[in-house]
């Protein structure tokens, strides 16, 4: 199979590829050996540091699984609140009235420009000063507040991209049969945009789950990452614990990422829809930045 | 209301300067590392492709906070790696930059890979017909055009990186978010003013970047 960059390899190229493979293996092997040597020198490869994760069920039932539960809980609550809010903001940005469009646009741009960590800190301080939320629940409230403020702004952009990705003829046809603006939005654009946005929204869930870890490190939310302190205090195995925690995050997020790209492929192929899709990856990269412009294929 | 800015107790500009430095070093590093990764992902050697794919899939799905905490607790405190830094401040800064490069490189790689796909196959075929090797095709024909095509997505990566540098607060790097945390604790009566100042700082950092590079992207885009 040939690509933009190279042809199907002939005999000479195959030899060359083998040489590159060997060279890469040597470099990679040396790097791995160096890492393992340093870890062995510091007694990080001792069986006692790694075996608790297999032999000691308590490490899972007391720390890891509750931590994962808290991560999922914070992520899902944030998603459930941010979705409708983001949809409203997105529709507001497309409004025909300037007095709606401009303030909503400013709100969305503002909260997308602020780091989510700062929004969490701000949320936490707000609850300390202006509410009676107990100090146990405050980290969860603060993290969800930060995630909602930030991600509703990002979801608003996804919604805008989703609606703009629909062919213009959809709106024209709806106008031609005499539908009003609200009806066009409600019966024609939104239902199609929702399917187009699904991959991007699933990818956004990955971003939200990853960001809950900030709450664990800065605000003391009892999510998965924060369990590293308690586990390594009990078993003094910092690196092993961090590796297992990272693996758990990777497993959950990898499943979500794959769901997103599966949805995307399915939607692009489907004959029923308009074929408009807001790609998940685009949204993820854009989570920090400017408009996520969805493209019809 | 804004007296806390004049009290001389807080170095807001200094904290933002650390944020800018973190961003610049990490941006240059992740551009290099991301290009190397993208080169591996499109190379004719299956093993390198597999490594590139595995690295991107694994690191992209790990929270940045886990990576940064791992750099501090794992690399520094457990394994004693300090990257040549002497003081606590230097070590934290360098480890944070390492973490940002490892994480942001994956996004740079993905952006570049999509840029490589925008180069028409015919160009590479023509280049190969002239007898250019894989590296020559990649560095002389494909990458220059790919870079010009991906300035807009790379800008988004850069803006995301600027905001992500706040995560370095988790390991005590004295950048903007850490100072904001301290100020909110010490000046609770000025909560909105403090938040406003730091929010404005980030808007001032990210807005010009987006506008400037957006203009550059339009100017250098290859018109097809």
TrEMBL record, chain A:
GO terms for biological process: amino acid transport. CDD domains: TM_PBP2. GO terms for cellular component: ATP-binding cassette (ABC) transporter complex. It is found in: Cell membrane. It comes from the Bacteria. Residues 68-256 form the ABC transmembrane type-1 domain. One of its GO terms (molecular function) is transmembrane transporter activity. InterPro entries: AA_ABC_transptr_permease_3TM, ArtM/GltK/GlnP/TcyL/YhdX-like, MetI-like, MetI-like_sf. Pfam families: BPD_transp_1. The chain crosses the membrane at residues 18-40, 74-92, 104-128, 140-163, 184-209, 239-263. Keywords: Cell membrane, Membrane, Transmembrane, Transmembrane helix, Transport. The keyword Cell membrane applies. Belongs to the binding-protein-dependent transport system permease family. NCBIfam families: HEQRo_perm_3TM. This is Amino acid ABC transporter permease.
From TrEMBL, chain B:
It holds the Pfam family BPD_transp_1. One of its GO terms (biological process) is amino acid transport. One of its GO terms (molecular function) is transmembrane transporter activity. One of its GO terms (cellular component) is ATP-binding cassette (ABC) transporter complex. Keywords: Amino-acid transport, Cell membrane, Membrane, Transmembrane, Transmembrane helix, Transport. It is a multi-pass membrane protein. CDD domains: TM_PBP2. PANTHER family: AMINO-ACID ABC TRANSPORTER PERMEASE PROTEIN YHDX-RELATED, MEMBRANE COMPONENT OF AMINO ACID ABC TRANSPORTER. This is ABC transporter permease subunit. It comes from Streptomyces vinaceus. The lineage of its organism: Bacteria, Bacillati, Actinomycetota, Actinomycetes, Kitasatosporales.
């Amino acid at each position: 199979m040939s690509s933009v960059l190279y042809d199907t390899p002939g005999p000479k190229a195959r030899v060359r590829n083998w040489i590159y493979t060997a060279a890469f293996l040597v470099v990679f092997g040396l790097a791995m050996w160096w890492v393992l040597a340093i870890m062995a020198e510091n007694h990080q490869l001792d069986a006692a540091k790694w075996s608790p994760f297999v032999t000691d069920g308590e490490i899972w039932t007391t720390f890891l699984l509750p931590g994962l539960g808290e991560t999922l809980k914070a992520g899902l609550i944030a998603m459930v609140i941010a979705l409708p809010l983001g949809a409203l903001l997105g529709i507001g940005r497309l409004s025909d009235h300037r007095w709606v469009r401009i303030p909503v646009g400013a709100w969305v741009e503002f909260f997308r420009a602020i780091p989510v960590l700062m929004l969490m800190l701000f949320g936490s301080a707000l609850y300390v000063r202006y509410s009676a939320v107990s100090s146990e629940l405050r980290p969860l409230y603060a993290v969800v507040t930060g995630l909602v403020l930030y991600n509703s702004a990002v979801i608003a952009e996804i919604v805008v991209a989703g609606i703009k990705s629909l062919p213009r003829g959809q709106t024209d046809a709806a106008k031609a049969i005499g539908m009003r603006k609200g009806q066009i939005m409600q019966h024609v654009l939104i239902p199609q945009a929702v399917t187009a946005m699904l991959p991007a929204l699933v990818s956004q869930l990955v971003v939200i789950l990853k960001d809950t870890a900030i709450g664990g490190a800065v605000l003391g939310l009892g999510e998965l990452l924060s369990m590293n302190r308690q586990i390594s205090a009990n078993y003094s195995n910092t690196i092993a614990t961090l590796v297992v925690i990272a693996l758990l995050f990777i497993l959950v997020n990898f499943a979500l990422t794959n769901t997103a790209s599966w949805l995307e492929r399915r939607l692009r192929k489907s004959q029923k829809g308009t074929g408009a899709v807001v790609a998940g990856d685009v949204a993820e990269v854009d989570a920090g930045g400017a408009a996520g412009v969805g493209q019809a294929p | 209301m804004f007296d806390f800015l004049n009290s001389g107790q807080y170095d807001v500009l200094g904290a933002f300067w650390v944020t800018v430095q973190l961003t610049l070093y990490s941006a240059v590093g992740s551009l290099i590392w991301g290009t190397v990764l993208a080169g591996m992902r499109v190379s004719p050697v299956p093993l390198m492709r597999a490594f590139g794919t595995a690295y991107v899939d694994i690191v992209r799905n790990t929270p940045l906070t886990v990576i940064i905490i791992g750099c501090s607790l794992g690399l520094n405190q457990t394994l004693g790696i300090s990257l040549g830094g002497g003081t606590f401040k230097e070590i934290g800064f360098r480890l944070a930059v390492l973490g940002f490069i490892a994480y942001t490189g994956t996004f740079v790689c993905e952006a570049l890979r999509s840029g490589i796909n925008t180069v028409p196959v015919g160009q590479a075929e023509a280049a190969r017909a002239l007898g250019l090797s894989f590296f020559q095709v990649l560095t002389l024909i494909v990458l220059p055009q790919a870079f010009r095509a991906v300035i807009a997505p790379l800008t988004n990566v850069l803006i995301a990186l600027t905001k992500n540098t706040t995560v370095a607060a988790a390991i005590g790097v004295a950048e903007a978010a850490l100072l904001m945390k301290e100020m909110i604790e010490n000046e609770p009566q000025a909560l909105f003013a403090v938040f406003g100042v730091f929010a404005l700082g980030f808007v001032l950092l990210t807005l010009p970047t987006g506008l400037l590079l957006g203009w550059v992207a339009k100017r250098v885009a290859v018109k097809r």
